[in-house]
Design a protein that fits this description.
This protein is α+β, with helices and mostly antiparallel strands and 451 residues long. It has nine helices and 17 strands. Helix 7 crosses helix 9.
């Protein structure tokens, strides 16, 4: 995690870390993508960002975001099963494997070897894995992305953490704890089927200014990826006192407050397995969620309640972590992610546009849950001399599964027309369908759909 508060003083201990090469080298070692551009002897940029001015401004056109899932009111047996499988042994195993590479500063061999470990681990789980490579003025590196495709691959949910560290130490909590949560979620969720696509992402370049996540969010935006929520875990494994183990922090912007509410509801729903109360903190630029905000995506940042006393030092080790707390925090994020990914959704379809005495259209909910606050509009344009510009609307507070909404527009005109029908709801995506026709007085003839 990069520095949360400008001016926070962290005393770095000077150490010499001896790595035994024969224990570190992964067979077939060769990281994909652009080579490291930092020559030997070239100094790295600071390992944490002192203030917001050091980050890059992003100016993009805001896009319509996908609909948000609704938290259920009862527990799900599959979620409970997932939570029971996420235990301290699983978290410890991933932490030991990751910290065995020692410091993992982006652009160094230790970081590249860790990237290979992550790639191979996620591939062996059975997921579709890729290196997301980037080249920056500061450093070149690779993010690791694994995808679990849902029945409807359109909407995407992301769990992420950063696997790079500062040069000083092994980064067990910062951010081995977050990456362990990502790997555990990937291993467990891969055994199940979900309604929506989930991406498990490990970023590099975080300690040098959120570089990896900035390039990732930028590419996602340019690809028009429909990302519903990003759950960023960064430092979720340290407690200073016993009471700390019952609390956690969550950082959010205004657009992402719904994720806070969702996670808090999940915490209550599965309290027997989680037992952590989240306390909203508002905005911060201190971790990899930040550039998702900048590119218009909803994201939150999960963080331990008491800031780690061993942050950015050689003593950020597993021995100074609370594995029980880290496990329960990982369960909270897993339960939130899995519930979002499997949440049933309404799907609106414009099933018919017909002529006759005016224009008629029909909106059908073909999804597997009720659509809330449905709005439908018929727009008619064209006609003789282009004088026709007519709109008819209808709204219903609830449209049940397989239910329909009729829509009608009557008018008296002449000439060729274009018909546009739009429907949306507060909990699903907008749909649009067009057709052409010819209006003769009150009658609409030869209505033909536009592909």
């Amino acid at each position: 995690m990069i520095k949360l508060i400008a001016g926070r003083k962290v005393v770095s201990k000077t150490v010499i870390v001896l790595l035994v090469a024969s224990l570190m080298v992964i067979p077939g070692y060769a990281i994909a993508g652009a080579p490291n551009t930092l020559a030997i002897g070239t100094p790295h940029k600071p390992a944490f960002v002192q203030n917001l001015d050091e980050l890059i401004d992003v100016e993009v056109e805001r896009r319509t975001l996908p609909s948000r899932p609704v938290v259920p009111t009862t527990t799900d047996v599959n979620i409970i099963e997932l939570l029971q499988q996420l235990n301290e042994t699983l978290i410890l195993g991933y932490l030991e494997n990751l910290t065995a590479f020692g410091p993992r500063e982006t652009g160094t061999e230790g970081c590249d070897q860790a990237a290979h470990y992550l790639y191979n681990t996620l591939k062996n789980i059975g997921l579709a894995v890729r290196y997301h490579n980037y080249t920056d003025d500061a450093v070149s590196g690779s993010n690791i992305e694994a995808t679990l495709f849902g029945a409807d691959p359109t909407n995407i949910f992301i769990i992420c953490g950063h696997y790079d560290t500062v040069p000083a130490g092994p980064g067990a909590d910062d951010d081995g704890s977050g990456v362990a949560a990502v790997l555990a979620a990937a291993e467990l969720m891969s055994k199940y089927e979900f309604g929506h696509t989930v991406r498990f992402v490990a970023f590099s370049g975080e300690e040098q200014g959120l570089i990896g996540s900035r390039h990732y969010a930028e590419d996602a935006y340019n690809n028009n990826d429909s990302i519903v929520a990003v759950l960023n875990a960064d430092m979720i494994g340290y407690t200073a006192t016993g009471s700390d183990g019952k609390q956690g922090k969550i950082f959010e912007n205004t657009a992402s407050e719904w994720i806070v509410d969702f996670t808090q509801d999940i915490s209550v729903l599965y309290n027997d397995y989680i037992d952590i109360q989240l306390i909203p903190q508002g905005e911060t630029w201190g971790s990899d969620h930040y550039y998702f905000w900048e590119y218009g995506y909803d994201a939150v940042f999960y963080h331990e309640f008491h800031f780690n006393d061993y942050y950015h030092s050689v003593d950020d080790t597993i021995a100074h972590m609370n594995l029980t707390y880290s496990t329960r925090f990982s369960r909270l994020i897993l339960a939130t992610l899995a519930t979002m990914a499997q949440a049933p959704r309404p799907v609106l379809e414009i099933t018919d546009i017909t002529g006759g005495l005016g224009i008629s259209a029909q909106i059908t909910n073909i999804g597997d849950s009720d659509a809330i606050d449905v709005n439908a509009t018929i727009g008619i344009t064209g006609g003789l001399f282009g004088f026709i510009n007519i709109t008819a609307t209808t709204s219903v507070p609830l449209l049940e599964t397989q239910g329909t909404v009729p829509l009608k527009a009557k008018f008296f005109r002449l000439g060729r027309i274009t018909i546009t029908v739009i429907a949306d709801a507060s909990n699903t995506d907008q749909v649009t369908k067009q057709a052409t026709g010819f209006v003769l007085g009150p009658f609409v003839l030869r209505v033909t759909g536009i592909p």
